[in-house]
Amino acid sequence: MAKKQSKRFLAALSKVEERPYQPLEALALLKETATAKFVEAAEAHIRLGIDPKYADQQLRTTVVLPQGTGQTVRVAVIARGEKVAEASEAGADIVGSEELIEDISKGMMDFDVVIATPDVMPQVAKLGRLLGPRGLMPSPKGGTVTFDLEKAVNDFKGGKIEFRADRTGIVHVMFGKANFEPQDLLINLKALQETIDRNRPSGAKGKYWQSIYLSASMGPAIELDVSALRDLKLEDAA
C-alpha cells in the first residue's frame, strides 16, 4: 500500500514541473520546497552509468565543499601514542585507542566521521560490520586513514565529505543546507560534479552521467539539466 503524502509535501510537489531545470533555477526551487519545521539538508541524487559490482566501476572519494556543509561535524579519531594528543589538539571530538574501539563495538556512535592512523587499522578492522553499513569505516581512499591527523580533522570539520556510489550506481550526497543562498549551493554542487568527473572509474563505458535530481531532505525531487551543470565554469558559479 502506497504511503499517503502529507499536505505539506503535496503543496511543495505542486511547484515542481516535470522537466530538467537550469542549476540556479533548480536550487531556488529546492529552497522554496524546503518547508519542514527544521533546516533541511540539500541533497543530490546522481545516477551514473556504472555497475559497482565490478572493481573498476566503483566510485568512492571525497570532496571539499567550498561553502561548508552547514552542520557541525563530530570527528572521532582512533590512534595511539603521541598521535592521541595530536588529534585532541587538532580539535577531534572523541579520541582514543583500544578503549575507543571497545566503546564503538558496544554501540557508541556519537560521531559523524571516524579517522584512524594506519598502525591501528588491524584493530579497527573488527568494527567493519558496525561502521561499514553506515559509511563510517576508515579508508585510505576516503582520506580517513592517515598519520596527518591535524589536516584530516580540519578538512572534515571544514567541509570535506566522503561519498560513494551505492550498489545500483547512484550517488546520494548532501551538499549543504536549504538555508544557504542558491549561489553558495551552486558552488558546492559544482565542486561535487567536478570531483565525480575527475574520479570517473576506469571501467565506466558509454554515458557516464545518466541523471541528477536535487531535493531538500523532506522535499520533492527536482530534475537538473546535467549538461548545464557540467558546462558551467566554476568562476561563473562563484
Low-confidence stretches: none
Assembly annotation: single chain
Spatial order of the strands forming the largest sheet: 7-1-8-9
* Structural class based on helices, strands and sheet pairing: alpha/beta
Which percent range describes the beta-strand content? 15-25%
Q: C-alpha Rg, in Å?
A: 19 Å
Main pleated sheet: 4 strands, antiparallel
Q: Distance between the terminal alpha carbons, to the nearest Å?
A: 45 Å
Number of helices: 10
Give the CA-based shape. globular
- Percent helix: 25-40%
User: What is the H/E order?
Assistant: HHEEEHEHEHHHEEHEEHH
Average pLDDT over all residues = 92
Give a count of the beta strands, DSSP E runs of length 2 or more: 9
Structural commentary:
With 238 residues, the chain is of the alpha/beta class. The chain has helices at 7-13, 23-32, 82-90, 98-105, 121-124, 128-131, 149-157, 182-198, 226-231, 234-237; strands spanning 41-48, 60-64, 75-78, 94-96, 113-116, 160-164, 170-177, 209-216, 222-223. The protein has a four-stranded antiparallel beta sheet with strand order 7-1-8-9, covered by helices on one side. Helix 3 runs parallel beside helix 7. The longest helix has 17 residues, at 182-198. It is globular, with a radius of gyration of 19 Å.
